[in-house]
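Q: I'm writing up a methods section and want to include an example of the input and output format. Could you take the sequence below and give the corresponding predicted structure tokens, formatted cleanly so I can copy it straight into the document?
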Amino acid sequence: MMHLVEVKNANYGYAHAFQLGGISFKVMQGMLAGIIGPNGSGKSTLLKGISGELALPDNQVFLNGNDLAGFSETERAKEIAVVTQFSEPIDISVEEYVLMGRIPYRKKYQFFETERDHEIAHKYMRLTGIFPLRAKKFSKLSGGEQQLASIAKALTQEPSLLLLDEPTSHLDISHQVQILDLVHRLTKETGLTVIMVIHDLNLASEYCDYLMLMRSGALYRQGTPNAILNSRNIEDVYKTEVHTQENPRSKKPAVFLVSNKTGQVRRPTKFYLS
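A: Here is the clean output for your methods example:
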């Protein structure tokens, strides 16, 4: 299995402000990699460089061995799709919204979608379960449905890399599990590579193959969930006392908060068994 993404000593960021501190890692094809860490640690900055939202220096981020700094917007859009935490409440149909994922493939002076575009959009609407909603206005969907539609649009780009920025934030438990089950299945069945920023450590543990734990713009630790999600690492980075133990079903680490009031383990409300 080959490395799809390679980041070498990345130090990009915002001019005269936050900069990453020399981050290096590799993500293999078909892997679901999670970026975790407290607010302000650089998770979104790291993702925005890969997505193209932030300008990249040469020779820091590579896709299939090619320097992403040299990609045009169209070339990048054919290889990388991005799903953000929030979607704009666009007043168009779900099908029209999903078809926007085909824009990078339009030829000059092509103003309408082809039959092939519709076939691809329908394929991913069915895969994400939103095909029955295709005629409904996107703005009328629930938060979970909008996120599924956003994933369908991203998949319609037919990318090799999918970037997710907190895809389950503000969603109920049912939609959180539905979305991450889908993403996990895509990596295993289609070879899609996913890099995801995620706050919930228990979800990260259950679904991610590989984790990158960030602190103050640097990569504090990286490895499998079993290697990363222990009390020492979490307490060092988050400055919060926790207790970890093995999930009896998945054999992955489960993270429990410790109340400052009682000193007793406080079991999380978000605890998922796969």
